[in-house]
Amino acid sequence: MMNIQITKLEQYLAHIHHEPVEVIQIQPLGADPDSDGDLKAFGYGQPVHIIYQHDGVRKERVLRQVRRNGYGREMKADRLAAVWQDYETFNHLSRHVPAEDVLGLTHDGGLISLGEVEDFLLLTNYASGLPYAQDLITIRDTGRAQPLDRQRVRVLAQYLAKIHQVVKDDPLLWRRRLRDLIGHGEGIMGLADSYPADFAPISTAELIALENTANRWRWRLKPLHHRLRQVHGDFHPFNIIFRPGSIDFTLLDRSRGAWGEPADDVSCLAINFIFFSLQRSGRLAEPFTGLYHTFWETYLAERADDDLCRVIQPWFTWRALVLASPQWYPHQSFQSRQAMLALARNVVAADEFDWRNPQQYLED
Predict the structure, then answer these.
(1) Is residue 324 part of a domain?
(2) Is residue 316 within 8 Å of 340, Cβ to Cβ?
(3) Is residue 31 pLDDT above 50, yes or no?
(4) Residue 40: what pLDDT?
(5) Do 30 and 135 fall into the same domain?
(6) The domain that contains 208 carries what CATH number?
(7) What pLDDT, on a 0 to 100 scale, did the predictor assign at position 35?
(8) In DSSP terms, which residues pair with 27 in a beta bridge?
(9) Which structural domain range is residue 72 located in?
């Protein structure tokens, strides 16, 4: 049962009634999963029945806490979203039990009312500097990479190698992260849905084939939960802020959770050296070739991972769909999109990604 102090609960109830109340009883509500007579043995919620006295009248309420499970409730953010959705929908269907408030449960067993909240806002610190994407744009436009550019690539590779050393044993979360990669609105299926039906560089049939192949990768990777590591989760050049003239950087928007597959971060940055090179040369060429190889060589020297190139394929496909998207990146050439989409198709079909020769994946 959720950890609620009776005195804290009485304080909350007194606040909403504007008068003192007395809690008489708190007990779990619903069927006992261990009973042989119960048909349903699993539920998303963990309801608690509260009986209290107010102004001489017995009143009853139910508090519901969403339990962690493997059905889209693996992360705390999922469970918060589920409670919020209940609050927004319960009162808009006739005969449904009404929802009265959304409560925040604090570490000390206290309760905070959130029912009047319209939205959540995130307050962060400010990171000064320029996005790493500006470096890549400058290299694209000038055709030259400076010593600082190579230093920054090495620092970023070393950083990823370091955070990817941290392991988490959570098979439930590993399976969820694989499902998100394929089926989430920000994943492969969400990207495929965003493409126009008459989009010349890739047909609907080809997008369907990509989805099907990527889903087969999900089943192939499912047993590999030992690979769950600390990740950033969106390690692209617009989320990396460098201080001018230095290798000091700050990261933004780690918004997909703390744990995942290291291939996610590696593919996210590596593919951008290809992407910006395509805009300049129509292929992976210098100076981006050198930066691309420096990134891979540094990362693998810092963190040996013999299986990385045998699992990275669906993440490369996802990132390629993002970069080829007419919605996300509207200002690029037809040829650049074609090459990105060829990479998406060719990499996902490969049993092992040959990082030393990425140009082979850019050609139909």
Answers:
(1) yes
(2) no
(3) no
(4) 39
(5) no
(6) 3.90.1200.10
(7) 46
(8) 49
(9) 6-113
Does 234 lie in the same domain as 151? yes
55 Ramachandran zone, left/alpha/beta (phi>0; psi -120 to 50): left
In a domain? residue 270: yes
Same structural domain, 254 and 174 = yes
Task: Report the C-alpha dihedral over residues 131, 137, 139, 140, rounded to 10 degrees.
Answer: 160
Quote the Cα angle for 99-73-110, to 5°.
55
Mean of the per-residue pLDDT values for the chain? 92
Average of per-residue pLDDT across 216-232 = 98
Reading the block at residue 104, the tokens are 């925040």
- Mark whether 161 and 294 lie in a shared domain: yes
Place of tokens 């200002």: 331
3-state class of 267 per DSSP?
A: helix
Q: How many residues does the chain have?
A: 364
What is the percentage of the chain residues whose pLDDT exceeds 70? 95
Count up the domains in the chain and report the number.
2
Confidence grade of residue 51 (pLDDT, cut at 50, 70, 90): very high
Judged by phi (left if over 0) then psi (alpha if -120 to 50, else beta), residue 329 lies in: beta
Give dist(CA 355, CA 353) in Å, integer. Answer: 6
Determine the residue type at 50: I
Rounded to whole angstroms, how far apart are CA atoms 77 and 147? 42
